[in-house]
Structures are given as structure tokens and as C-alpha cells.
Amino acid sequence: MNIPDVYSIKLDTLDEDSSVKLLYKVSEKKGKEYEDLFRQVVRKCECLPLAIVIIGRRFKDRESKRFIYRFINSPNRMAKNIPGVDAIYDSFDTSYVLLNNDEKNAFKVLGISPCMDMTPNSCAAMLNVEEDFAALILDSLYDKRLIIESGDDRYRLHDLMREFARDKYDIENGLEKREWIKRLILFYEKAIAISNNYLYPNTISLALDINISEKKEMDWMKWLGDERINLVACLDYLFSIDCEKEYIEFAHLLSSYIRNCFLGDDVLKIAENAVKFSEKNNYDYYLAVSLMDLGLANENVGNFTDAIILFHRAEKIWRNKFCDTELAYAFSNEGFTLERLGKYDEALDILQNALELYKKMIIYMA
Q: Residue 41: which of 28, 64, 22, 63 has the closest Cα?
């Protein structure tokens, strides 16, 4: 998220003498010869501990003072109307300029990704590289203190570092952001397809030709469970932009998967957003799919009456489009929901309608 100019962010600072002591400690330099130079550095850093620590660590293994002079004389390249951010950005930049191209790309990709954090395999998907290579890049960025660990084999950016990464992307990159994110979306789609085929082996198998590392089905399911926040973040991103058809297909696949695997308010929110999204883009077929998802999500949390209303809306679309398979599916779910409400006669009637449609399809297929 971008940090609006209207926000006032207060950053803790030290006094100048304490700042100089901190810089001596972190850089492990000794002697009065550094005193005046270090005072210029901490003033440039506006006595912000984070900025001082970053500069001190970069200076620690250097004998030459040219690095420090270059920092002192550097312009405030990315001024933000937030007190202290110029100094922090300058300190970030001293680390960033020393990265190789692969590390820079990974760093910027972390910034533009809609996800809260990233694993080696999701990073590999966005960069279009092997997973092992992506892991090495992330380890390098972590060693250089540009990213932090958020869990086992998971990395994220500090909020200010994320803003810095996005600014760098805007300045340096020609590839449209959606193209990078599209790779991530397709990667998630493959992972969901593998898990979905394992969970529901008697349904239509989802086959997607995307080159990602092989894992057992249970490994993908566990990984997707850990990715819940990121999956929701990707969906929120998709629902917020004008999407191509493939994005829409993924959005419905993902919302259905989340509905089947997770419980709670996230599922209802996702399904509601999918309905609004389909209505906005005039996709009747996907609107019906979304209405079914929302109906099933409501049924899962006990909102049976709302679920039946949503099933009716989906059924109307399926009838107009002569989609017998989907209509039979809607009838079946409506019938089971009516049964849960104790409306057994109505449930029997609607389930009989579903059965007749299924019989017709069997005869047609034969």
C-alpha cells in the first residue's frame, strides 16, 4: 500500500552524541579521525537509529572512507513528505546499489507483489527462474538485511522498505506490473489445481501446463493453507482491476477452493466480491458461478434462507443459457439446503428436477 502524504508518521530519534556512539559501535571503527565524519553522517541520517545501523553495517567491512563521503554527498533521491524518510531511503539506497541484477529484480518484485510475504517458489514464479535459484537470491537479500523473515522459508519487506522497492520499480522497470503478477497468479492456479484434483478426484480434473517444482499433493495443500492471507490478497487485487478473462477464471477457481478449504468471514467476503466483480464486468456465466459460491458459503455458516435466494438467481441464469449441468448442480444444492430447513416436500421436488436433468445428460452422453 502507498503511504498517503496526509499521514504523519513519527520516527524515534537519538540525540547527536548518542547517534555518533551508535555509528561507532555498529561500524566497529575506532579513533577520533572518524568523529567529524560520523557527525556529518548522523545529521544526514537525521539521527534515525534504523538509518544509522544500515550505514554502519555497510561501512563495517570497508577501510576506505569513500563510501561514507559518497553517502554524505548523495542527494535525497526519493523525497517523501514524511519526516525522516529521506534519510532512511538514502541508507536503503546504499545497500540497493550494490545488488546484482537478479537481486534487484527480486527485491522490486517483493515490493510490487500483492502478497504479504513470499516463499522461494512464489518468488521463482514471478521471476521465471528455478526455485533453488530464487531461494539463493532471497537468502542473499536477507543476509544484506533488505528483507526480514516472516516464517519458515518466508520473507517480507518492512513497510518503508516496500515503499522504497515500489519506487525503485517505477523508476527502473519497463515491464508492466501486471505481467509480473500474472506469473504469480498462474503459479497459484497450478498449485490450486493440484490440490483440488487431490481433494475432489471424482470431479473434472484441472490440468494446467505451468512449469513449477514437483511436490506431493499434501505438500501443496499444506503450503496453500499457509498461503491463505496471500491468496486473499491476490483475490482482492484481481477484484480491484479490470481483468482479462484468465484472471476472472482464476478468481473463481480460487474463491471456490478457499470456500471448500477454509471457514469464516474471509469466504463470505471473497464470494461477495466475486459477485460484484462479475456484475461490474457483465460476465453472466461467472456471475452464476459466483452466486453459487456465495450461496454455498452462506449455507456453510447457517444462512440457509439467503443461500436459497442466491441459488434461485443462479438457476435463472443457467436456464437462460441452457446450461443443464450447472442447473442440475444448483437444484441439488437448493434441495439439500431446503432439507436442512425442514422443508422436505419442497426439497424432494427440487431434487427430483435435478435428477431428471442428470438422467437427460446420461442419455445424451450415451
A: 22
Q: What confidence score (pLDDT) does residue 260 get? A: 62
From CA 309, how far away is CA 332, in angstroms rounded? Answer: 14
Q: Are 27 and 33 in contact (CB under 8 A)?
A: no
What pLDDT sits at residue 78? 37
Cα distances (angstroms) measured from residue 263 to each of 4, 270, 274, 297, 337: 34, 12, 17, 8, 18
Go through 224-253 and write b for each residue having 16 or more CB atoms within 10 A of its CB, e for each that does not: beebeebbbbbbebbbeeebeeebbebbbb
Q: Which residues pair with 151 in a beta bridge?
A: 154
Counting as low any pLDDT under 50, the low residues of the chain are: 1-10, 76-83, 204-213, 365-366
The predicted pLDDT at position 107 comes to 92
Q: How far is CA 261 from CA 214, 223, 235, 288, 289, in A?
A: 22, 13, 16, 21, 17
Question: How many other CB atoms are found less than 10 A from the CB of residue 212?
Answer: 18
Contact 230, 115 (CB under 8 A): yes
| 171/150 Cα distance (integer angstroms) | 28
Give CA–CA dist 286/80, Å, rounded: 42
Spacing of C-alpha 60 from chain mean position:
35
Question: 271 and 259 in contact (C-beta within 8 Å)?
Answer: yes
Nearest Cα to 270, choosing from 251, 283, 285, 287? 251
Assess contact for 317 and 279: CB atoms under 8 A.
no
The string over 86-96, giving b where at least 16 C-beta atoms fall within 10 Å of a residue's C-beta and e elsewhere, is bbbbbbbbbbb
Angle among Cα 184, 120, 102 to the nearest 5 degrees reads 85
* Half-sphere CA count of 140, side-chain side, radius 13 A: 18
- Specify which residues 148 forms β-bridges with: 156
